[in-house]
Amino acid sequence: MASSLTCAGVVWAFLSFLCAATSCVGFFMPYWLLGSQLEKSVSFGTFRRCSYPVRDESRQTTVMVEQCGRYASFQAIPSAEWRICTVVTGLGCGLLLLVALTALMGCCVSELISRTVGRVAGGIQFLGGKCSCRDGMGA
């Protein structure tokens, strides 16, 4: 099994894959916001929710549906900001997974990734992570 990556490249490829997998799991889980409503524990993410209120027309009251699921449609996501977050986060997770899987393939196939391309891709990942951390801290 030939490789086009150095030892550092192999470590970077596996760490990239672990980060991609963690990001994708976090994206699909509905536990972004936790709270309570009508004395029930509720949680929701960008496109999934657990324990949500529904209007019961026969009794003219609001009842809690205690199950997890996706929103019925893209327009059912509560706000435009959450819709944008869903699209951007989904695209980011998809691209991250694509880059990570390509890097892992570079561990098995020779001449798939050149040294220059690997260094540039790693540098871009590093700078992207640094920019995200700085923005998250209010700097």
By oligomeric state, this entry counts as single chain
How many structural domains can be distinguished in the coordinates? 1
Structural class: alpha+beta
From the N-terminal CA to the C-terminal CA, the straight-line distance is 45 Å
Kindly provide the radius of gyration, computed on alpha-carbon positions and rounded to a whole number of angstroms: 21 Å
Q: Average pLDDT across residues?
A: 76
- Main beta sheet: strand number and arrangement? 4 strands, antiparallel
DSSP helical segment count: 3
Helix/strand order, N-terminal first = HEEEEHH
Number of strands: 4
Instruction: Give the helix level as a range of percent.
Output: 40-55%
- Uncertain residue segments: 132-139
Shape verdict: elongated
What this model shows, in words?
The chain has 139 residues and is an alpha+beta fold. The protein has one domain (8-109). It contains three helices and four strands. It has a four-stranded antiparallel β-sheet, with no helix packed on it. Strand 2 (40-44) and strand 3 form a beta hairpin. Helix 1 (7-28) runs antiparallel to helix 2 (80-108). It starts with 6 loop residues before the first helix and ends with a helix.
Give a topology summary.
Elements lengths: L6 H22 L4 E5 L2 E5 L3 E9 L4 E10 L9 H29 L6 H22 L3
Antiparallel strand pairs: 1-2, 2-3, 3-4
Helix pairs in contact: 1-2
Brief overview:
InterPro entries: LHFPL. By secondary structure, the protein is α+β, with helices and mostly antiparallel strands.
